[in-house]
């Protein structure tokens, strides 16, 4: 068993990645556990599990004789695991070690770690991780931290009913909780919902988005200052989401072709939109400012900008290259506590939202205006200008035209 640590250290000396070392350690650990299932060990475990199974559980006792199996230790391990699962489903659940599973107060740390790993592996957004973790934590509290192996579909039904009846959550929140728990059961617990009779999926009411008139758009933008003024103008002129606009980099702009490319939008989708003619001069001036700021940063020896995933490990100097610089950079550098490096981030969402609220208040607009309102207004104004729905769908990046149809109100 001690050889496993030495093996991982050897991989580290060979400069293997951390994920690969973890994977190797996990594989070797599984192999070591399987080797422990000698015939005497498996007999002891089987005898222990048999005592925990209720009389109502019918299992052919001939299956408990190891002589009927080939000498493959993996078969023994798998068989013991299957028996363990059957025991857990009995009236008096116990683990293979004979320790009773906790009805409450169990540790869910591994569940949250696994949830994070599964979401990261699928390249879902950090917001998805935050949302799903939040609902999982609420579900854990509702079940009083019941042992994960004992959690059932009935717990999900009761939890969703409690949300709707006692907590009075909205239909969208109820559906969001359902999707989060469905993901949790399938990808973390390794269970299927099966028949979900009794779970009523809440139906959202038809939503009519808030749309500003062109005059109202101009009034709000008129009360804003740089750089928020340019950001909101670009969001309205291109129908961009707030995250898409703030995460733009220098390479996304093609001023010769007058095209803006959105990379990794919602749903990891790319699309192109035309650059508004009225913003062409301001955007080119912004590019000059970014180039000037980048030159100063390089002279000061900064560590570059934040990049996606493991991109910096693949391209060592990418973080300091001009094409990867944020088009709307933050004023100050951000200190990364882990490695003590100072990197530049883009303008934060909170900063833009605060500036927008102040501008709306000064403009005295009697509507509930958010950053997404300008995307709604972009689509509605195109419809008013007699653009076809399919063109608007492409510009907004909708997968289904029915999502775009909401603007036909």
Write a brief caption for the model.
The protein has 409 residues and is mainly α.
Structural class: mainly alpha
Cα-atom radius of gyration: 28 Å
Beta-strand residue fraction: 5-15%
Summarize the biggest pleated sheet. Answer: 3 strands, antiparallel
Euclidean distance between termini CA atoms: 67 Å
Unreliable spans are: 52-99
Mean pLDDT: 80
Count of beta strands: 5
Tally of individual helices: 17
* Helix fraction bin: 40-55%
Strand order of the largest sheet: 1-2-3
Order of helix and strand elements from N to C terminus = HHHHHHHHHHHEEEHHEEHHHH
**Gross geometry:** globular
Would you give an account of this structure?
By secondary structure, the chain is mainly alpha-helical. The chain is built from 17 helices and five strands. It has helices at about 5-15, 20-35, 40-50, 75-90, 110-120, 125-140, 155-165, 170-190, 215-220, 230-240, 240-245, 280-300, 310-315, 350-365, 375-385, 390-395, 400-405, and strands at about 255, 260, 270-275, 330-335, 340-345. The strands form two sheets. Strands 1-2-3 form a three-stranded antiparallel sheet, with no helix packed on it. It has a two-stranded antiparallel sheet with strand order 4-5. Strand 2 (about 260) and strand 3 form a beta hairpin. Helix 10 crosses helix 15. It starts with a helix and ends in a 5-residue tail after the last helix.
């Amino acid at each position: 068993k001690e050889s496993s640590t030495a093996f991982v250290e050897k991989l580290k000396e060979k400069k293997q990645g951390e994920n690969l070392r973890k994977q190797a350690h996990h594989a070797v650990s599984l192999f070591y556990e399987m080797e422990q299932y000698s015939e005497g060990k498996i007999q002891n475990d089987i005898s222990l599990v048999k005592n925990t199974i209720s009389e109502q559980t019918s299992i052919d006792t001939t299956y408990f004789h190891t002589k009927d199996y080939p000498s493959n230790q993996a078969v023994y391990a798998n068989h013991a695991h299957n028996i363990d699962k059957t025991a857990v489903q009995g009236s008096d659940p116990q683990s293979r070690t004979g320790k009773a599973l906790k009805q409450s107060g169990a540790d869910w740390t591994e569940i949250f770690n696994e949830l994070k790993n599964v979401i990261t592996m699928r390249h879902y957004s950090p917001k998805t991780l935050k949302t799903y973790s939040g609902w999982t934590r609420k579900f854990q509290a509702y079940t009083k931290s019941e042992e994960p192996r004992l959690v059932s579909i009935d717990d999900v039904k009761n939890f969703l009913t409690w949300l709707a009846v006692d907590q009075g959550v909205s239909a969208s929140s109820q559906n969001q909780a359902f999707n989060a728990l469905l993901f949790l059961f399938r990808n973390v617990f390794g269970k299927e919902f099966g028949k979900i009779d009794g779970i009523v999926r809440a139906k959202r009411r038809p939503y009519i988005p808030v749309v500003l008139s062109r005059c109202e758009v101009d009034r709000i933008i008129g009360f804003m200052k740089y750089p928020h003024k340019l950001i909101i103008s670009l969001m309205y002129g291109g129908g961009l989401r707030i995250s898409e606009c703030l995460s733009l980099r220098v390479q996304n702009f093609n001023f010769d072709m007058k095209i803006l490319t959105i990379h990794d939008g919602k749903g990891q989708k790319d699309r192109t939109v035309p650059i508004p003619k009225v913003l062409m001069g301001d955007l080119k001036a912004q590019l000059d400012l970014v180039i000037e700021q980048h030159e100063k940063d390089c002279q000061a020896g900064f560590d570059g900008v934040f990049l996606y995933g493991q991109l910096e490990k693949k391209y060592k100097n990418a973080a300091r290259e001009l094409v990867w610089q944020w088009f709307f950079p933050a004023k100050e550098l951000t200190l990364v506590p882990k490695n003590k490096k100072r990197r530049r981030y883009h303008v934060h969402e909170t900063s833009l939202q605060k500036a927008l609220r102040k501008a709306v208040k000064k403009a005295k607009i009697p509507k509930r205006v958010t950053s997404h309102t300008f995307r709604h207004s972009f689509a509605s104004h195109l419809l008013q200008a007699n653009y076809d729905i399919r063109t608007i769908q492409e510009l907004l990046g909708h997968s289904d035209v029915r999502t775009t149809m909401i603007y036909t109100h």
